[in-house]
Amino acid sequence: MGRKVLVTGATRGIGCEMTKQLCAQGFTVFATGRDQSLLNDLKKETGCLGEVCDLADASAAVALYEKARRALGQIDVLVNNAGFNPGKNPLVEVSTEQLDASYAVNFRAPYLLCREALKEMSARRSGHILNVVSSLARTSAPNYSTYCSLKHALHGFTQCLAKEARLVDVKVTGVYPGGVDTDFRIEDRPDYMRADSAARMIVQCINAPEDVVVHELVYRPMIESNF
Ligand SMILES: NC(=O)c1ccc[n+]([C@@H]2O[C@H](COP(=O)([O-])OP(=O)(O)OC[C@H]3O[C@@H](n4cnc5c(N)ncnc54)[C@H](OP(=O)(O)O)[C@@H]3O)[C@@H](O)[C@H]2O)c1
Description:
Layout: E1 4-8, H1 13-24, E2 28-33, H2 36-46, E3 49-52, H3 58-72, E4 77-80, H4 96-124, E5 128-132, H5 145-166, E6 171-177, H6 195-206, E7 216-219
Parallel strand pairs: 1-2, 1-4, 2-3, 4-5, 5-6, 6-7
Helix pairs in contact: 1-6, 3-4, 4-5
NADP nicotinamide-adenine-dinucleotide phosphate is lined by residues 9-15, 33-35, 38, 53-56, 81-84, 105, 132, 134, 177, 179-180, 182-184.
């Protein structure tokens, strides 16, 4: 029987391709995003379960975990993939509202979903949590202070989580992709990785042998040299 997976940010980009690949491999997926029509298309195409949820709302994020758990029976794998790019802005132009909006989705929601997952998975002493961070969490960039610093926070949190979760036999993987050509940015970037390629790497991690935990998955398109 295939494992049960909750994928956030499944309506587009990396999460959408991941859901297609996981369903094709026999996993049962509960997919979520905000766009109802894209989610309906994905459910029709893959047979996945799912519900829309705005992860900017903290209580909706916590409630989502329980809805997915009920729909799936149990959650074996959580992929915190949803995130958004607030665009490039000099710090002096960043509003408090923009900072809060980025915090809510890029850090608070994955933090809360990890907390809920660890409650369930630690009781069973098994499970796998993957947080899609970014290669930017290992470097810095001008005019990108909100996104970059919140991904740094998610990186730090993921490392703390890995050490807590290890004690209860739960695997944790931090995923650090470089540029991927998705709706994440306005302009097309055909020189970046394709969304299905980026997703394949994550699915490979989910399929790692039972006795292996991948702590960090760092990968980039060949054009990037910021390492
Ligand atoms: N693309 C890159 O170059 C790149 C590089 C490194 C890391 N990443 C990370 O990879 C992850 C996926 O990115 P992507 O490139 O696939 O982006 P994408 O194509 O823009 O997809 C983002 C997904 O997140 C969902 N999402 C955004 N805000 C949400 C909210 N408030 N509530 C619920 N869902 C929300 C979107 O759902 P709706 O559209 O339905 O709202 C969509 O399904 C993100 O965490 C991103 O930071 C991306």
